Amino acid sequence: MLKIEELKFGADGLIPAVVVDYYTKEVLTVAYMNEESLAVSIKEGRTCFYSRSRKQLWRKGETSGNVQHIVSVTADCDRDALTVEVIKEGPACHLGTESCFNDRVYENPEFNAFSMNGLYDLIKGRKTEKKEGSYTTYLFEQGIDKILKKVGEECTEVIIAGKGGDKEETIFEIADLTYHVLVLMVQAGISVQDVIAELAKRHVVDKKVKQQRMQ
User: Fold this and answer.
1) CATH at residue 177
2) What are phi and psi for residue 107, nearest 5 degrees?
């Protein structure tokens, strides 16, 4: 394990810290730490940064409640930058979004990366900005009863496919069910992060977080 004094802080006494969601591996924010804030972070098990604008330490979540529990802190090969993996409570960005990185500058058309968050956002967009001819928009227009009916139907299809032992068919039906569950989540105001947080409560790592809360 490296000691804090072995890290290379800049001329201003700061070191950049890239904060990453432990579960999704999504980059949440980039902040700065000095020796004191890093020591506080390690001692308390929660992110504490140095505000360059206010010229003082600030604990993430001390006013918003959006605390970030630290799982690990890792230095790069030059020891002049850090990645901090966290389990977060609430949005990471002061604007209320899960991550500070939302405004895409460039996307290579040759690659079409898929993510559950991306699909969720697409479905959410079909509710807020209705698109004519969209099946997703149709479901939202029909309301919760229709959405729940479809979730029930897809559950049955998964059971039938699983019982039949057809792997490809089961994958297909699970994908259908997942989509309809995401529609239900949007309708109910439940985010992907909400579900991940609930699963995290059952994860062994989260026991450490609970211990930190009790301290």
Assistant:
1) 1.10.287.1080
2) -140, 120
